From TrEMBL:
UniProt entry keywords in alphabetical sequence: Coiled coil, Signal
Extent of the signal sequence: 1-20
Highest taxon of source: Bacteria
UniProt feature coiled coil, ranges: 33-60
Protein name, per record: Tol-pal system protein YbgF
Annotated source species: Candidatus Bodocaedibacter vickermanii
Spans annotated as Disordered: 72-101
Key word Signal present: yes
Length: 228
């Protein structure tokens, strides 16, 4: 009888040990899965951010080619064939960067928007390191807004926004224009997020004009950003 008693205790003891080990293994698995899930979420966010940056750069680089193909589609030239996005094949102009910038501004003042666009595109394409490139990207954004091509405008504005420092009053102004492009594309969430970005600039002591702040507050209320 006593032997049976001790045998029973040993069995229950082993069961308890096994159960404890199973719990440890299960907990380890749960923690490992949670760790992997966290890493996956971080990786997903990183990929999304990179995709957005690539989209912006591709839009900026290929904007001209996209427009030309779009016009061909509208005119029925391409028939049922799918459009291909190609960079415009142009040789380097004889004019230097400063001349292209001044010619572009002159054409813009005379409302020769296509000519102005080409001058600024040449400046961005052939003199990408020149100090006038951020302004050229800004004016390309303005030209596309006039043409109501808000996706292309947003892409060029984004390049200019990245280039200007927070001490330059244009930084916040361009940020507001990016938000306006999003709103024009019915992307209220993205527009509101960019308004929040301007608020962060303000909190960091960036140089922001009163006109920009007033418009930001107007859009914030109009698009009900507080509810998003």
């Amino acid at each position: 009888m006593r032997c049976l008693y001790y045998a029973t205790l040993m069995v229950f003891g082993l069961v308890n040990v096994v159960s404890a080990e199973e719990e440890k293994v299960e907990q380890s698995v749960v923690e490992y899965v949670q760790e992997l899930t966290g890493k996956l979420d971080t990786l997903t966010q990183t990929i999304e951010l990179l995709e957005k940056r690539i989209e912006i750069l591709e839009s900026a680089c290929h904007a001209r080619g996209v427009e030309e193909n779009s016009k061909k589609i509208e005119n029925g030239v391409m028939g049922s064939q799918p459009a291909s996005v190609e960079k415009p094949k142009r040789s380097k102009p004889s004019a230097g960067a400063d001349r292209l910038s001044s010619d572009g501004l002159s054409a813009l003042q005379h409302k020769n928007f296509d000519e102005a666009e080409q001058k600024f595109l040449d400046l961005v394409q052939f003199y990408p390191e020149h100090s006038a490139v951020p302004d050229a990207c800004y004016w390309l954004g303005e030209i596309h807004v006039i043409k109501k091509q808000y996706a292309h405008a947003q892409a060029y504005y984004a390049l200019a926004y990245k280039a200007f420092p927070e001490t330059n009053v244009k930084k916040a102004e361009i940020g507001l224009k990016i938000a306006e492009c999003y709103f024009s594309l019915n992307k209220n969430k993205e527009g509101c997020l960019f308004l929040k970005e301007i608020m962060k600039l303000q909190q960091r002591g960036a140089n922001i004009s009163n006109a920009t702040l007033q418009l930001m507050q107007k859009y914030w209320a109009l698009h009900k950003c507080a509810d998003l």
